[in-house]
Fold these 2 entries.
Entry 1:
Amino acid sequence: MTSAATDTMPIAAQVAATFGIGRLRGLLPQHVDAGQPTVVAILEAAGELANAVLMPLNRVADEMGCRIENGRVLTATGHRDAWRLFTSQGWTTLDQSEEFGGQDLPTIVAVACQEVFDRACPAFGMLPLSQRAAARLLVAHADEEMRTEWLPQLVSGTWGATICISETGAGSDVGRIRTIATPQADGTWSIDGEKIWISFGDHDLTERIGHCLLARTPGAPPGAAGLSLFLVPDTLIQSNDGVIRNAIVVRRIEDKLGLHGSPTCVLEFGGAQGKLIGTLHRGLSQLFAMIATMRLGVATQGLAVAAGAAEVALAYAEERLQGGNPDAPPVPIAAHADVQRMLLGMVSRVEVVRGLVMALAVQIDLARYERDERSRQECEALSQWLLPIAKTFDGEAAVEVSSEAIQVLGGAGYVNDWPVGQALRDARVFTIYEGTSGMQAHDLLHRRLWRDQGRGLEAFLKVARAEVSLQATSLVAESRSLDVALSLLADAASHLAKWVEQPVRADAVATHFLKLSAYAATGWIALRLAGTTGYDAATRRLAAAGRYWLSDLSYKATLEHALVLHGSDRLGWFEDIRAVPRCRL
Ligand SMILES: Cc1cc2nc3c(=O)[nH]c(=O)nc-3n(C[C@H](O)[C@H](O)[C@H](O)COP(=O)(O)OP(=O)(O)OC[C@H]3O[C@@H](n4cnc5c(N)ncnc54)[C@H](O)[C@@H]3O)c2cc1C
């Protein structure tokens, strides 16, 4: 068995239940049809492609990986055909601007489809994600000429794109980038340096690849403020329409734990020609138009892999017969209380992270479509608050749920007959790339809580408390559980305010603050799910998942709150640990 075929019904049910979806539908331009029947039809079509084409590719790409031949990267057997089908069916165009060949659909539709595709083959999804995010970047910051040349090709999937940041000395610390961009007489820039770990840095799927690359220009200030952003194509189109290679060499493909179908490349730029995107020295802040989409995409990858692993575990637990009365035939392991505990934990986690990523997607679109400025700003603040939380919590969900799925399958989960081992390997990077969990916690504390003066937290508490008031009489225990988490979060935030002048103390507990924020955010989603009514299977599942998630939420939130208040003193023991001689690396 390679994977569990995706049933899109639970995903469609969540779209219908998402906070703000009704309001968003009312605000969309008239030509955009994002009504529920359309969403259901789109998801069914996505499911057909995912089950028929991407699911079989998942195992093949994992086993074959990618290779370099004659200096170019070749993807696994079947990847090119899958890509051709994917683009010919228009899946790269969903939430892109109509002006450039897109369908103008809201982000939530693209996110819901991404879940379907990534569940079948997360490595395949790496290319459309960076492509979609690059298109967002160019719409926001490119000049007319660059937009006209690149956007229709990116939107159609004829050309691909990368996010090209990392270097040997510049991982989380982007300000240490050393790649140099030197101005040329013809207005272009000459790029010199080495970029590492570039996903789909080279491949055989698209006709052309554009690297969205951060570099330092001569005389630029040190640190992140001195970085500028360039579009560096792998090929240059000449005035006679001839095509030549740009000065970029693929040094190697990384040998890595998972996502083998996605080539992670070391690229050397030796005087490659590039063009400036936007304004000099504003590179990093402009790139956030791409990074935000990538982070939402990683959150969705996390959801997708967690959802796939949970479904395999559920199906397996009904079929595997073990235990029960020795005088009778063995029972399905799903009959055992401890297995039910694991399955409930996994499924409820999947449903709340799905609700979280979808609520975030809707807020992103409302920040664009809301008519009055104040509402727009509130949606913007709420989406910025939820983004690092969803990136981290959904990424962690993939790791933890796939690990738990292995536990449910027992020995069968550890051997490669079942896809849960690959799920765990593929998922492990979700909490690392696009900003590690530690850096997301730092972002939530320093930017969202302190620099933005808690505007996002305020917007979140407002909507979450409104939900508590709404459900307080019908879901008494569940509402109380969320109410406790919200009070603890507000208290932790005011406690941290005391440490603005001693950020090291606060940094020591930033991860616990993010976890507490994540419990509060998922508690809000869970209460909404618990309140869904209806007798169809999808609705009953949502309500059960919400209630289960809330059943121990206040305990988890209490622990994280206590750890925030505990502060940094216990880190003093680190000096004793580092005093012991270390292994040689
Ligand atoms: C499969 C894969 C695909 C990738 N794709 C791309 C891509 O397409 N484009 C691209 O540009 N990059 C890509 N990357 C790189 C990725 O974004 C980086 O790995 C990530 O940003 C972390 O950087 P690092 O690995 O150097 O870790 P480091 O920065 O060395 O961090 C190591 C640890 O130290 C912690 N740490 C570091 N600094 C701080 C600090 N100031 N405060 C607190 N904690 C800190 C981190 O949280 C982490 O736990 C990819 C990586 C992988 C593995």
Entry 2:
Amino acid sequence: MTESPNTKKPLRPRVAMPYQDPMVRRHNFQEIALGYTREMAMQEASRCLQCKKPQCVTGCPVEVPIKDFIGRIVKGDMDEAYRIIKTASSLPAVCGRICQQEKQCEGKCILGAKGQAIGIGHLERYVADHFIADTPCAQITGGNACAMRHPGLKVACIGSGPSSITAAGYLASRGIAVDVFEALHEPGGILVYGIPAFRLPRDIVAKELNALRQLGVNFLTNCVGGRTVTVNGLLEQGYQAVFIGVGAGLPTLLRVPGDNLIGVFSAKEYLARVNLGQAYAFGNDDTPGLSGKNVTVFGAGNVAIDVACTAVRLGAETVHIVYRRTREEMPARQEEIKHAEEEGVQIELLAAPIQFNGNAEMWLESVSLQRMRLGEADASGRRRPEPVEGACYELKTDLAVVALGSTPNPGLLESTPGFARNEQGYIVVNEQTGETSIPNVFAGGDFVIGAATVILAMGAGRRAASEIARRLLPS
Ligand SMILES: Cc1cc2nc3c(=O)[nH]c(=O)nc-3n(C[C@H](O)[C@H](O)[C@H](O)COP(=O)(O)OP(=O)(O)OC[C@H]3O[C@@H](n4cnc5c(N)ncnc54)[C@H](O)[C@@H]3O)c2cc1C
Ligand code: SF4
């Protein structure tokens, strides 16, 4: 057994997370990971070395005091652990489940070099799931005392994903009224319509949104920023500040012949139909079903894995993920790739689509693939995929889903004159405050940096809200 770098005592392995059996879970939308018990959490926390200079925190984009909250778990003081996390992170139950800890905090944990890093995400999840809030303020901030309301102060958020939820929670818990304008009929952003319930159960997000409602945050759905309401119109109506967190909802398309056939979807549409439209319950619900027999997914990130595992649950006979590079380059979490393969998803590496083929009625029947190999490294340092001459083949496919990323929708920018934009057309903001070139109009999350992560969106929402609060509240 390897020794601990600090104590020279033998290193214990990480307490394993219990999971649903793959053959059971492939037929349901219940959460894959079952969560630690109290005993498991305390045992795992007791492996932490309580380092003098904890490296884990340097890997956390919002600098959660990791060592301190883990120290509280060891003592069994789960409520204090929650309060400590809440000083930095607004959505611990979400982050504990879907943050890429292995690339962030756990990737820096000193134990990772010699053995297994502390299961920081698993511990964060345990603490968040078991905290029972006495007041909505405690749910949002970890503290029980709600701030006095400041009559006359109001802020608008456009979009209701993690960036806006974080901004709204920060401001509402400081007594500022917040109205959130959401284009869809349900708030929550990708947490609700993108990430499937088997990775992020809906009640977790609902709990956060309900706490915000109880603090007075007003969600106005079916309200499209740039059309139903405009940024300048909101300022004229008396909102002292506007935060824009409308995400990156414009899907990147494959642009190969046949991509207009019936049965070719973008990941956003496919997942929204299932998660938001409940396409799996067609008959009882209005959204037509999407149960392809032979499903092919293009892409290699978490979105592609989410689509593939959703297709498995919808009853597909075969599900392939097609990727033009090798497994090492797949950006998805290793754990998610493993889970998908356990459920029967097949990964077709070094292959790229060249065209979709359909029948006379325009229904998709197959996809033609080009075999690839890795050539010289390109400017990004990654080896460039190159076609292998003459090596083409067909894959039977009646449902194809393109999960190649997405970019911000320019609609809102185009409806508001005066926003400074960069060369890629993205909105420019002050890095410290999130303020745009229009005074008192802030922006953050995927809308500013392109499709990224929940924790980065939350960090941006928090930075902007803290600047707004600094300007609006008496010091
Ligand atoms: C399938 C999938 C899986 C993912 N998995 C992970 C993961 O495991 N870990 C991780 O960290 N990240 C993951 N991500 C990325 C993460 O979800 C995003 O980075 C994050 O949600 C961005 O937050 P946001 O607040 O910027 O925007 P979003 O969550 O995109 O929310 C934007 C909201 O604004 C609304 N909107 C858009 N336009 C308008 C308008 N004009 N007016 C009003 N409202 C508007 C949208 O309907 C949406 O509700 C995943 C993304 C997807 C799609
Ligand atoms: S989580 Fe890892 S790096 Fe952080 S204090 Fe514990 S042992 Fe040290």
